[in-house]
Design goal:
The protein has 3 helices and 14 strands. It has helices at residues 5-12, 66-69, 100-110, and strands at residues 16-22, 24-31, 34-43, 48-54, 74-76, 123-136, 148-159, 165-173, 191-192, 197-201, 230-236, 256-260, 273-283, 291-300.
Length: 301
């Protein structure tokens, strides 16, 4: 009896097991004049590497030596070499951390504007259950000059439509230096007429959140804080070079833009449509390609 093509394919498909390597870092911690080593977990899409091995080991190969005695069937994930960041005097550079309560309040106030990961689901409730310090490593290929200290929050969510309750991790930078710059349009009109000039103003990213009326957070979101340089770019419909708005007053790069309102692409005569305006704020001093995007929709008739 001849085997079918499907049988042959199934017979030749290797059965594999995977070994996951997770990066961990050990660093000295000084508490009450005593120094001890603390191990920090590295989290994020670039923090792990999967190595695939045969599920059935050859004779003489054990779990203890299989990583050196068996050729891997495949590898998934990238890898970065890391080393301590030092100043001109050879001293290791440090960053000042927020306390967990402040970082938690920041997350509950600004949500996706401060998280390293985003959960694509609508939730009606969030409760932080626990927190721990870790380092964030982005996916391979992303520009990242430094590992980012983060709080790993265990959060209990309530889903909006089904009221289902589930738990997941949320990662928030543990230092204001590593927060993405604030992208917020402060004066968008509700509606406009095609052909009319429209002026939009972004919140000044060099100001503290408290100054901008956001909670009691007395710090600036950005690598150099109030001394940083923040680039503002505006787009219509999507972030691409051909959609960038050229300011009518030629104040390129500033946090205010004036442009002529276009016709909405999806509107028919006599029917109201929307024009999406996107603001991208980039922290030009950050070594970690730090930028934020926000969208405002303006009704057009």
């Amino acid at each position: 009896m001849l085997a079918s093509a499907a049988d042959v394919a199934a017979a030749e498909t290797p059965v594999v097991q995977q070994v996951i390597y997770s990066r961990k870092l050990t660093a000295p911690s000084v508490v009450a004049s005593s120094v001890s080593d603390v191990t920090y977990t590295v989290v994020g899409p670039g923090a792990k590497q999967k190595v695939y091995l045969p599920a059935t080991l050859p004779p003489g190969v054990t779990a203890a030596n299989m990583l050196t005695a068996v050729d891997p069937l495949g590898v998934q994930g990238g890898w970065r070499e890391i080393e301590p960041l030092v100043n001109a005097a050879g001293e290791q550079m440090m960053t000042t951390l927020l306390d967990a309560a402040t970082a938690a309040a920041l997350y509950l106030t600004l949500d996706d504007d401060v998280t390293m990961n985003s959960l694509p689901i609508n939730v009606s409730g969030r409760q932080i259950l626990s927190s721990t310090l870790a380092y964030w490593e982005g996916s391979a290929g992303n520009a990242q000059g430094q590992l980012i200290p983060v709080f790993e929050f265990t959060v209990r969510f309530t889903e909006t439509e089904t009221s289902a309750v589930f738990e997941d991790f949320v990662y928030v930078p543990a230092s204001s230096d590593y927060l993405r710059p604030l992208a917020l349009v402060v004066d968008a009109p509700a509606r406009a007429t095609p052909g009319d000039p429209v002026t939009l103003t972004a919140a000044d990213a060099t100001q503290t959140l408290a100054t901008l009326g956001i909670g009691n957070f007395d710090f600036v979101m950005g690598y150099l804080g109030a001394d940083g340089t923040y680039l503002y770019k505006w787009y219509i419909g999507g972030v691409s070079p051909e959609n960038e708005i050229m300011d009518l007053n030629h104040s390129d790069g500033l946090n205010k833009v004036t442009f002529t309102m276009p016709e909405p692409a999806s509107a028919d005569d006599g029917r109201e449509g929307n024009v999406a305006v996107l603001l991208v704020v980039t922290d030009t001093d950050s070594p970690n390609a730090s930028a934020s995007t926000t969208v405002v929709n303006i009704a057009v008739q």
